[in-house]
Design a protein that fits this description.
mainly beta; Immunoglobulin-like; 6-stranded mixed sheet; 19 strands
């Protein structure tokens, strides 16, 4: 009986002595703002801008990995840092997505932040470019019912010019095709097949031919 009690106490001591290693916290993204044009970027030349990415420090984290995806080319670049900001050179005009992965030295677990999107504008004309359309529904990475699906967005122009919107839809971010005619409405309804992943964006057009593209969203049907 004495040996049995001793064994139980030793087992309890060992179990209580094992502390769970905390996973890194999720970084909170700050800039560039989500679903917007990146007005804080510094223009380097006719094709590139310097973009500063910022996020808040996360708990139990030793380093971060910034992941930036060009939605026009579907290429992804990764940058490691111990700081909460990173400045990189990006091509324009183009749509981008970005996220931050938190890591710690004492565990192999990582935690990924939310994913944000932004549009990096090209050179503006004298009349100014349209604002990139803000995609509203379906939300990015949403799952929706097959059948009649309505895409909706909002758009505008810095000088109030009248805009038309061209919908682009496809099976991948790099395989988008214009559907229907350019329209003044900010919704578009189509018949979506079941068990399919769709990608879409909106191109905002003004009368002089200038345009801007939204970020690319995706959704899955069930």
């Amino acid at each position: 009986m004495k040996y049995w009690l001793t064994g139980v106490l030793v087992l309890l001591f060992v179990q209580c002595g094992k502390e769970k290693i905390p996973a890194p916290g999720a970084a909170i993204l700050v800039a560039p703002a989500n679903n917007n044009n990146c007005t804080t970027a510094q223009i380097v030349d006719s094709a590139q801008s310097q973009v500063n990415f910022e996020w808040q420090a996360s708990e139990n984290t030793d380093s971060y990995e910034l992941v930036v995806q060009n939605m026009n080319t579907n290429s992804t670049r990764n940058f490691s840092t111990t700081f909460t900001s990173k400045s990189i050179l990006l091509s324009r005009p183009s749509s981008y997505r970005w996220r931050v992965i938190s890591s710690a030295e004492i565990t192999s677990e990582t935690t990924t932040s939310e994913e944000w999107s932004f549009y990096l504008e090209g050179e503006a004309s004298e009349e100014g470019l349209p604002f990139p359309a803000q995609l509203l529904a379906p939300e990015n990475n949403a799952t929706v019912n097959a059948g009649s699906v309505t895409l909706s967005w909002s758009g505008g122009h810095p000088e109030g010019a009248t805009l038309r919107y061209q919908v682009y839809l496809g099976s991948s971010a790099t395989n988008l095709s214009a559907v229907g005619e350019a329209q003044t409405l900010s919704t578009y309804t189509f018949e979506a097949a079941a068990q399919q992943r769709y990608f879409w964006k909106i191109q905002s057009l003004q009368a002089n031919g200038d345009s801007s593209d939204s970020v690319v969203f995706e959704f899955q049907t069930q």
